[in-house]
Amino acid sequence: MERKRVAVLISGRGSNMQSLIAAAMDPAYPAEIALVLSNRPDAGGLARAAEFGIATAVVDHRDYKGDREGFERAVDAILKAERIEIVALAGFMRLLTPFLVNAWRDRMINIHPALLPSFKGLATHERALEAGVKLHGATVHFVSAEMDDGPIIAQGAVPVLDDDTPETLGARVLGVEHQIYPRALALVASGKAKLRDRRVVSGTDSFSGDAPEPGALIVP
């Protein structure tokens, strides 16, 4: 089996990056984490990736003040030089321009800590509690030109408890993120997540991953 070469883009500690690295350690997993790239040289996830022998790179966005596309062209050049086939955003805190989105159309995925299309943007857990929803969770989706938009690949949901705080709810959602992101990447890398009329039609899950968190609902 030829595994797809994946780049994970991070801005911080790379919590979801680590879940992808752990999944890719299984030889049967259809993707390999070939590169971890950050827009911040002090991102904690870079050192963690290096510990696993994964190539790392930094393109500091502060070197491209007022030139977002120039920053993205530098990122794109590294991705191409490393023969990357799929890009996985994992806490990459940069709004993307049409240049990078179009360059990696249908080959770039993102994880968002909410059940899209609800609660796009930041402070998702606080907003979920304020809205009084009974279910909250996370979504993996293909990246489009709109923020936190694009065809949905997988979602995981947890109940919102009466005594939840943003911290407790966020911790429970993070556990679901770590489960659905490896599954979603496996679907994309194996070709089982197919786009039809800008909707994702998924085949059988190609990587089972860990057992779901108690009370969690994972789709697919």
- Report the CATH topology name of the largest domain: Rossmann fold
Number of DSSP strand runs: 10
Q: Any idea what the shape is?
A: globular
Sheet having the most strands:
8 strands, mixed
Explain this structure to me?
By secondary structure, this protein is an alpha/beta fold. It has two domains: 1-104, Formyl transferase, N-terminal domain (Rossmann fold); 112-139 and 148-220, Formyl transferase, N-terminal domain (Rossmann fold). Residues 204-208 have low confidence and may be disordered. The strands form two sheets. It has an eight-stranded mixed β-sheet with strand order 3-2-1-4-5-6-7-10, with helices on both faces. Strands 8-9 form a two-stranded antiparallel sheet. It has six helices and ten strands.
Can you give me a brief rundown of this structure?
This protein has six helices and ten strands. It has 220 residues and is of the alpha/beta class. Strands 3-2-1-4-5-6-7-10 form an eight-stranded mixed beta sheet, with helices on both faces. A two-stranded antiparallel sheet has the order 8-9.
